[in-house]
Protein 1
Amino acid sequence: MFAEIYEANLYKTQDLPSKLFTRKTFFILIEKFFKEYCETNPFLTGFFYKYFWDGSYIDLWALPLVLLDVFRLNTKTLNFYIRKDKNFLKDLKIVVQCLEYYVVEFFKENGEYFRQTKEVIENYRYLLKLLIEKIEFIESN
């Protein structure tokens, strides 16, 4: 399934993850996602503390870079987090699913600050769905 989705949309995905996951807007989205959802959800809070605790703070800005590494199948990063906890990919998949739903809400609520086209919002959702497919692919191998 993953290979079919990837091949069908290769032209669309070649540089798209780098463009979208490294935008200032996405980092702000991650911060708001944490404040609005993660702080009241024990699973999401636990995920960020488990994988992104940096001794005195949660390094939220590491998540977009991890998403990029997973998207690119960077085995060094994957192995680092899997060594921390064998459930990393399963946990990450749940976080990405939550994040995919939050993207639409974020841009609806903050439309006056972030003038994003419908295409940009759909691109974020598309990449997050594709990321879920990649995680499932990695888990099955």
Protein 2
Amino acid sequence: MKNSYKNKEDIKLYDNSVLPKDLDKVGETPFMTEENVFPDILKNHMAPKNKLGYLVVRKGELNYVWEDEEEKVYTVDSNHPLVIYPERYHRVILTGAVEFKVEFYHYDDKMIVDKTALRPGENFIK
């Protein structure tokens, strides 16, 4: 599958955010592939309320976009996980064979901006 979401000059962009320390893990999705990915992850959505996501790829790679910065397409692979901050619309873009999951951590952020946002990760919180 050809990636139609490239950064200028086809340069891969990685997110260098580090998962904050001392967060309590409260859930995770099962590992997903390009064949069984939850469809809502591919749509414009937010992380569960007061949760921080951590996108972990075991095999292959995928792309990730913050909707407020669509010109920046991040590559996520086994060496470059991605921290998903709450209250920011985003989506995953599959670019080929991949195996990945999203871990969820409690994140004390009192600012819930969009109470009606699609939040598919809510189903994986303990």
